[in-house]
Amino acid sequence: MEDFNEIEDSEKLIESEQDDEDIVKDILDQLKPNKDETSEADLEKLLNRYEKNKNDAIVEDKIEHLNRPTETVIELTRLDLNRFDANLLRGFRQIQYLYLQDNRISSLQIDFFTILNRLKYLDLRNNALVTLPCSICYHECLEILLLQGNCMTRVPKEIGK
């Protein structure tokens, strides 16, 4: 009988799926009975932290089976990432090809190109990038950078030097 109840509960859970932001809002509602105490800034911080943790977990799940010291290609396409923490790839010292296309990445951290200093090929097509960090100008290995389908209006002026 317990197994039947567990199956029924699982079916109810599947039927009542909400998207992630609704779940966070529900948790906040439960934690703070007076909604006036929850500022918009608090909610924004919580959602940002949740998104970062969610993105990091997706990337970690995708790379956990890879051979860190010798891997040269990492493919993280179509994962709906809105941010990417290059620190998650610090153990991969030989990365030369990184595929991040078809996500929602809006910016790269300042030290992105310092951390991933052996990249030869970087595919960032179809994201939401507005600009690139200036550290790209000092990257000596990068040969191919794909940026089509982003929101960029300018690149660092030092990039052509």
Automatic annotation (TrEMBL):
<dbReference type="InterPro" id="IPR032675">
    <property type="entry name" value="LRR_dom_sf"/>
</dbReference>
<keyword id="KW-0433">Leucine-rich repeat</keyword>
<protein>
    <submittedName>
        <fullName>Leucine-rich repeat-containing protein 27</fullName>
    </submittedName>
</protein>
<dbReference type="InterPro" id="IPR001611">
    <property type="entry name" value="Leu-rich_rpt"/>
</dbReference>
<dbReference type="Pfam" id="PF13855">
    <property type="entry name" value="LRR_8"/>
</dbReference>
<dbReference type="GO" id="GO:0005737">
    <property type="term" value="C:cytoplasm"/>
</dbReference>
<dbReference type="InterPro" id="IPR050216">
    <property type="entry name" value="LRR_domain-containing"/>
</dbReference>
<keyword id="KW-0677">Repeat</keyword>
